[in-house]
Design a protein that fits this description.
Elements lengths: L1 H17 L4 H5 L1 H16 L3 H8 L3 H8 L7 H10 L4 H13 L7
Helix pairs in contact: 4-5, 4-6
Length: 107
């Protein structure tokens, strides 16, 4: 997993340097993930503490994820999405829905 994470970070960094116009798009996933995570957590009736326990991360990590901080690893997001029973397809569909209607996210 570390190798994949390093490769993702390196690729993202190279894209940002080579294509400054993509920087905002690449940096923009954290706020989108934040909305998806918060919405799903509330829909499932979990507190941040409960979700943290299920995802095997700290409560502060859940708070940071819901706050849109961009320094969380892909591994951390995977743990959270798995705990929320969200597949890659579910996340992609939620992202599309966010693009259509910024105000209402339902998963």
């Amino acid at each position: 997993m570390k190798r994949t994470k390093d490769l993702l970070a390196m690729t993202t960094s190279m894209l940002k340097e080579g294509h400054p116009d993509l920087k905002e798009t690449l940096d923009g996933l954290s706020p989108v993930y934040a909305k998806i995570i918060f919405s799903r957590r509330i829909a499932l009736g979990y507190s941040q503490r409960e979700l943290a326990d299920i995802a095997n991360v700290g409560q502060k990590t859940i708070s940071r994820a819901e706050g849109g901080f961009d320094n969380l690893s892909t591994e951390t997001y995977n743990k959270i999405f798995h705990a929320l029973k969200l597949s890659v397809r579910d996340v992609a569909e939620a992202m599309i829905q966010l693009g259509i209607d910024e105000q209402a996210v339902t998963i």
